[in-house]
Amino acid sequence: MNCIQCQVYLPKNVHDYSVNSFGVPLCRSDQDWVRQMEGQTTYETLRLYFALKQRGVPAELEKFDGFKTIDIAIPEAKVNIEVDGSHHNTSAKQAMSDLKRTYYSFMKGYMTFRIPNQLTRNDDILEETADFLVDILKASRDRKGFW
């Protein structure tokens, strides 16, 4: 088995530790990277990110676009994915900030998908969410020719 991030071969003990600790196969270097990301991203974002990586999506985590940091970016597809907690739906100030972020990305040619945390917490729903996002990316690719 190979690391889901860098594709390096994983010895069985590293593979087993990673799958038990992180839910996905990661080399030691990328295990350290995930530990460092824990203060910069959410558990829900990491789960969706790795579900997309397992499906071969060339996603980037916590990508800065010159204006803001995107939870999950897929630059080849010009897609941004924001994984949102419930406060994104209860605060008018937060909702307006999100709308402005979406507008900024749209003006750069990017589509933004807002995924509620609830779609990442249950394994079955996470899998369905990731599959659906891949279907959207494939449909877009077929029209635009990328990834």
How would you characterize the overall build of this protein?
This protein is α+β, with helices and mostly antiparallel strands. About 55% of the residues lie in helices and about 15% in strands. It has helices at about 10-20, 30-35, 45-55, 85-90, 90-105, 120, 125-145, and strands at about 60-65, 70-75, 80-85, 110-115. A four-stranded mixed β-sheet has the order 1-2-3-4, sandwiched between helices. Strand 2 and strand 3 form a beta hairpin. Helix 3 crosses helix 7 (about 125-145). It is globular and about 45 Å long. The mean pLDDT is about 90.
How far apart the termini lie comes to: 23 Å
Structural class: alpha+beta
Shape: globular
What integer is the average pLDDT? 90
- What proportion strand? 15-25%
- Total count of helical runs of at least 4 residues: 7
Biggest beta sheet summary: 4 strands, mixed
Write the layout of secondary structure elements.
Blueprint: H1 12-22, H2 28-37, H3 43-54, E1 60-64, E2 69-74, E3 79-84, H4 87-90, H5 92-107, E4 111-116, H6 118-121, H7 123-144
Parallel strand pairs: 3-4
Antiparallel strand pairs: 1-2, 2-3
Task: Give descriptors for this structure.
147 residues, alpha+beta
In short:
By secondary structure, the chain is an alpha+beta fold.
